Amino acid sequence: MTLEQTDKPHPSDGGRRSDMSAVDHAALMEAVRRLERNSLALRLANLVGRQVSFATQLVPARAAQVVGKAAGAAMRVALRAAFASLNGAPVRDRVGFHRAMVAASGAAGGALGLASLPVELPVSTALMLRAIADIARAEGEDLSQPETALACLQVFALDGRGAEAELSESSYFALRGLMARSVTEAARFVASRGLIDETAPALVRFTTQVASRFGVVVSQKFLAQATPVLGALGGAAVNLAFIEHFQSLAKGHFTVRRLERKYGEALVKAEYARIAAARDPDEIVTPAA
Predict the structure, then answer these.
(1) How crowded is residue 49: how many other Cβ atoms within 10 Å of its Cβ?
(2) Is 183 within a domain?
(3) Which residue in 132, 75, 66 sits closest to 99, CA to CA?
């Protein structure tokens, strides 16, 4: 199928002109599902067998302080890792390896509790970053570019919602818009200096912005792991849900970016919004083959 074939209005689509192929439109619909209709809070509520809103539970003050510091440290570790050794490796499927490693770190966290978080979270975050980078590379991203490395880190900020988030509300492009300036400034700084100075204002602003949203999700993870009788096995299951969630967000994020490179940001954003606003995405008409 050629793009010319898809330029004709689809008869059941109200005469709307579509410049996106059927395959790419289906990929965009899947990206919307991953980015708008999925949250870690919902995954964890199902995992621990309780339909609760993790966002409305109060994290003890001491735990909140530990979570905040751990999230900040995790982002600093991830920032260094993002620019250190992600370029040059061949594209290969290492999803299983990354999930196994993160599950193992979660088992330790579940057994040791809050005390292990300052060590366990940076380790699991660095492992997740490698998994995210593999997904980015598979979607055609150039990992030698600072902006791509920052886009990998940005994935950790894409779910700051609780279990009761309004599922019809498009939040992905809103979050990207909020972070656009800090991403641009950080990428420009790294490109001009050719090195990472995590104390530089541009990078501090970016990592702080990501860490603040990542901390919300980490709090949900902590609450799930703190559930009585979960222990080490439960900690591993929670961390497995943790990495699967961010891998899913990464797949959606880098699918959107791939389509933006192919069709332009305006077209992709408009069609994304149309899909996200639909009550049932399955009812959206895909361009004819």
Answers:
(1) 8
(2) yes
(3) 132
Please determine, for residue 104, whether its predicted confidence score (pLDDT) is greater than 60: no
Asked if the structure places residue 10 within a domain, the reply is: no
Once rounded to an integer, what is the mean pLDDT over residues 194-223?
85
Answer whether residue 49 is part of any domain.
yes
Asked if 170 and 277 touch (Cβ cutoff 8 Å), the reply is yes
Structural domain including 158 reads: 15-283
Cα angle, residue 202 at apex, residues 201 and 205 outer, rounded to 5°: 80
State the Cα–Cα distance between residues 16 and 170, nearest whole angstrom. Answer: 22
pTM given for the model? 0.79
Closest CA to 240 of 159, 128, 145: 128
In-domain check, residue 6: no
Contacts with 262 (C-beta within 8 Å, 6 or more apart), sequence order: 24
Q: Do 127 and 98 contact (CB within 8 A), yes or no?
A: yes
Number of structural domains the chain divides into: 1
Q: Which residue has the tokens 């735990």?
A: 63
- Better pLDDT: 185 or 161: 185
Distance CA 42, CA 210 (A): 21
